[in-house]
């Protein structure tokens, strides 16, 4: 596949920032919105029916930017048509739906990618580098704290757990407690034995707001944020070192590039639906869904 011609279900990122890609169609259930989006983005064709977009012969890859609950339906529709899929994170609204997506991807031999773009940003790659270099010695504990004035657990915790599993491997045990939909706490354990804990509050007073992950080792501490641009901090006995690494102007540019190159047969994108599924398993375990 030399030229990737995307059809967007919903409002997606600027995929044409990478050579060899273009957006040729988009879809919204609302005809006026679809027409307006197409005009704003210079997209030649618009639809109100997702199947019509998927069946468009000009479309050879589908990007899903619809609500998470719709991911499973649209992804399966596109893959049944033999068209590669890329979608906003998280992969689906439940672990069960992730399994359905993976089953069809394997059955149809069609790739499915999830835009966990933080994996590819230099800021988070620096954290992974510090961990891999054992700068804080042996990792003992991980702690996540997110207190915000808005947001939702499933969407935001997914971003945090995807990164943590990128650093430490799959989480094999997780338990959670919730007082309400906007206040959740959890404990978890990675396959390598590292344990962790977390708390989220999405109705926090501004005085309590915090976005912080701590990686605790027997020789130091690494601190970083996921949703705000705080420096990565390395605390050692000899002092503290800061890494002020700025995100690129287009946060999704690195992941778009590697997915595009992979579809063109010259890359190896690891952000597959299979790699994204363990995150949904953790979220569902914390919420007590199984």
Give structural notes:
With 290 residues, the protein is of the alpha/beta class. Helices cover 32% and strands 29% of the residues. The protein has helices spanning 31-41, 50-55, 71-80, 95-108, 122-132, 153-168, 253-263, 273-286; strands at 4-10, 21-27, 45-47, 61-65, 85-87, 112-114, 139-147, 171-180, 183-190, 195-201, 210-217, 220-224, 232-236, 239-243. The strands form two sheets. Strands 8-9-10-7-11-12-13-14 form an eight-stranded mixed sheet, with helices on one face. The chain has a six-stranded parallel sheet with strand order 3-2-1-4-5-6, with helices on both faces. Helix 6 crosses helix 8. It is globular and about 60 Å long.
Summarize the structure.
The protein has 290 residues and is of the alpha/beta class.
Query: Reading side by side through the largest sheet, how are the strands ordered?
Result: 8-9-10-7-11-12-13-14
List the secondary-structure elements in sequence, H or E: EEHEHEHEHEHEHEEEEEEEHH
How confident is the prediction overall: mean pLDDT?
Answer: 95
Uncertain residue ranges: none
**Helicity range:** 25-40%
Give the C-alpha Rg: 20 Å
Largest sheet, described in full?
A: 8 strands, mixed
SS summary, helix count: 8
- Name the beta content range: 25-35%
End-to-end distance: 40 Å
